[in-house]
Write a structure and sequence with these properties.
single chain; 8 helices; Trp Operon Repressor, Chain A; Alpha/beta knot; five-stranded parallel sheet; 9 strands; binds adenine
Length: 251
Amino acid sequence: MRIDVLTLFPEIFSGYLGQSVLKKAIDRGLVQVLLHNIRDWSHDKKHHKVDDRPFGGGPGMVLMAPPVVECVEAVQAQAEPGRLVMLTPQGRRLTQPIVEELARHQRLLLLCGRYEGFDERIRLILKPDEISIGDYVLNGGEVAAMVMIDAVIRLIPGVLGDEESSCLDSFSGPERLLDYPQYTRPRCYRGYEVPAVLLSGNHQAVRRWRLQEQRRLTAQRRADLLQHGLSSEQCEHIVETPADPPSASGQ
Ligand code: ADE
């Protein structure tokens, strides 16, 4: 996958691009991330200005249409056209199904805003897919773009090893539930035992317990995720059903 990031602050990405899963994916040629500085398309050759005061008054600065539109068009023309995403708090909220849809593209262009927003003509001309990472306002789209890249690349075949496969993640799988609780050694810590079923060696019982825990946790914490699959009575039943009691023997 090729990801083009269009930003006023390309330096923000350098630490993130050089670390962990993304670095490995880049080194293995599975992902290519190209950074483009919108300022390079400024019409102001002296100060490289890309923003101006809003018509009608008000606080802050607005990103001007010409440098942004021309930057996107020039970058699009560098390869087969890709999906243009604008990171903005006004967009549709990012969810795992949207991440899955984005991961199916060969190429993404991520347009990061700053200041008080984009001149509306940028939206009208480029018709981007506007996406927000949540109902809060960031100082710009760069962190949101990193969140999106992080979520998308883990779905690209070969990026994660088999043992860390993404299909078992929270919000994935047929029911899109929260993840189940995990335990590792020691078996007992400060009086808290590992649930006996996880030590039983009974794989079917372990699978059943994990699914039950996923449904219980999701009903308890994020009933909104269940609303399409279960009735409210079913949700109440799940919330009230306790998980396996801690094992007394620690076996
Ligand atoms: N830019 C500023 N806030 C944002 C948000 N919540 N999501 C995406 N981009 C943003």
